[in-house]
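G., the chain you wanted modeled:
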Amino acid sequence: MRQVAIVKYNAGNTFSVMTALERLEITGKVTDDPCDLRSADCVIFPGVGAAGSAMRYLRDRGLDSVLRELKQPVLGICLGFQLMCMNSEEDATPCLGIFPSGVSRLRSAPKVPHVGWSRVTGTEHPILADVGPSPYLYFVHSFRVSCSAETIARCQYGEEFAAAAVCRNFVGVQFHPEKSGVVGERIIRNFLEWEPV
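Predicted structure as C-alpha cells:
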C-alpha cells in the first residue's frame, strides 16, 4: 500500500482529503515534517485559505524548498495548486514557481467566489482517465490559474482558467476531487496509481 503524506500548513481541508482517502481504503498522514514528505510514495498538498499566510507558514518551516525538490507524485488541490504557481495576486504573494502560470482574481465570473459544480473539458491525461469527456467537478475559489502549456483541463466560468495542469511529477487541480463524488474519487485513484514519465 502506498504511503500518502498530506501537507500540513496554514490552510484547511485536510479532513475532507483524509476522508476521501479512507473511502479508497488508503491511510494518509497529515504532516509538516520534511522527512515524512520526502519518504512518502505520494504527497497531497490541499488547501482552503489565503495565499499570503499559507506561504509564510511554508517558508518559516523550510517547506517551500522541500516541496519544490520532491520527486514523487505531488497533487496540489485548489489553494495547493495556486501555491505551486509563480505568484498570486492574493496578498501579492510570491509562490513556489513549479508551474509557469500566475494566479489572478476571478473578474468576469457571474459570482465570486465560484462555488459549485462546473463542467471541465480536455480530459485526455492519465490523471483524468475514465472520467468522461466533460465531467462536472466541484469548485470553491475566488482566484484562478492562467492556462499554459502545462494545462490538461480547462473550465469556463465567466472566463477560462486551468482546471488541471501537470509539470513533471506535479499535478495541480483547481477543483476539489475530494468533494466531487465518484468522479473525484476516480481522479484521486488515478493520481495514486500515476507513474510520472
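The first helix runs from residue 14 to 23.

Shout if anything looks off.
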